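User: Good morning. I'm curious how NAP would be positioned relative to this chain. Could you predict the structure with it bound?
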Amino acid sequence: MSMNNPRVAVVGATGAVGSAMQSILASRHFPASEIRLMASERSAGRVVPTPWGDVVIENLATADPVGIDIALFSAGGARSREYAPRFAAAGAVVIDNSSAFRADPDVPLVVAEVNDDAIHAHHGIVSNPNCTTMVVMMALGPLHRAAGLRRLTVTSYQSVSGSGKTGMDVLAHELDVLGKDRELLVHGGWPDPDGDLYARPIGYNVLPHAGSFTEQGYTDEEWKLVHETRKILDAPDILIEPTCVRVPVMVGHGIAATTFFSRPVSVAEAREILGAAPGAELWGDNKVPTPLDCAGRDEVLIGRVRATVGEEGGISLWTVGDNLRKGAALNAVQLAELLL
Ligand SMILES: NC(=O)c1ccc[n+]([C@@H]2O[C@H](COP(=O)([O-])OP(=O)(O)OC[C@H]3O[C@@H](n4cnc5c(N)ncnc54)[C@H](OP(=O)(O)O)[C@@H]3O)[C@@H](O)[C@H]2O)c1
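Assistant: Good morning! Here's the predicted structure, ligand included:
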């Protein structure tokens, strides 16, 4: 294996995350000696121009993993469960974007610039956290290090690209269909846009649950926020109250968080810590970051840092980040850089 000039595979290369991975590998001048692109048999055979030359997309089901040093997986959990162990057995280090291995105690769950050191304990597979957890960790990681996070109430406002290319197609379609007659949106009687990706239409709407319902009335996305936050911060006792909401935004997950620490934290201290947080940008109070501001950007944006007004001593804040970049592809590439 050569980790100076590794041979890299992008698995799920035609997807929203896989496409972002390719452009981020290129823009960060990742020193790959070769790049291989893999997807389903639907895409196999297509030729994709890359900075490493034209690459023919391979069918994951028949691709030979021998010779790959780093494999960036973003083709869904089922593909990760089936193929990631095979790629690892063939000598690759797999950086996996799905939730397949995130809870596995033998698999590090790493947010670059928050818990980098955890990556070195890998046994061939490293997990990239969920995109919502990733964004909020960029603010909470530094605060936790300074003051010890004890309690967290967190509500996400998640964009449709979190559901991949299909999510973006569905939103564009529904905005088109429902937007044709504003009166019906105001008074009722809107036409059913006929989608089945989400339980209800997402165009001109807000869905008070992202993901699928699992235990205790919470969704899998909400449980990811609980379990992944505790694992990343190595703090199994943090109390977390999560709500995940889907909003009609193309790219950019926003998260509102109210936090309490092992001691009171002032706004001045929080702003000082967050202003120095790597990979994040703290915005002033009269300039509030929104999903449109973060789309296409690497930095997670932080704003509305304020003191809690019910119980004193805590901090409430807002973070928003590009779920396809820091929430997925950028972090995966940063983890690959940590392996070099
Ligand atoms: N979107 C996000 O914000 C985000 C964030 C973090 C993690 N993730 C995770 O990343 C993964 C991909 O998400 P995405 O948003 O990029 O989805 P997407 O746009 O729907 O892309 C899915 C990718 O998986 C490939 N694929 C699907 N079925 C396959 C099969 N049977 N064999 C091989 N390849 C197959 C697709 O190839 P074809 O084009 O050939 O079908 C495509 O390249 C998921 O596990 C998701 O949970 C997504």
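The pocket of NAP is lined by residues 12-18, 39-40, 42-43, 60, 74-77, 79, 97-98, 131, 161-162, 164-166, 323-324, 327-328 (CB under 6 Å). The radius of gyration is 20 Å.
Let me know if you'd like a different ligand tried.
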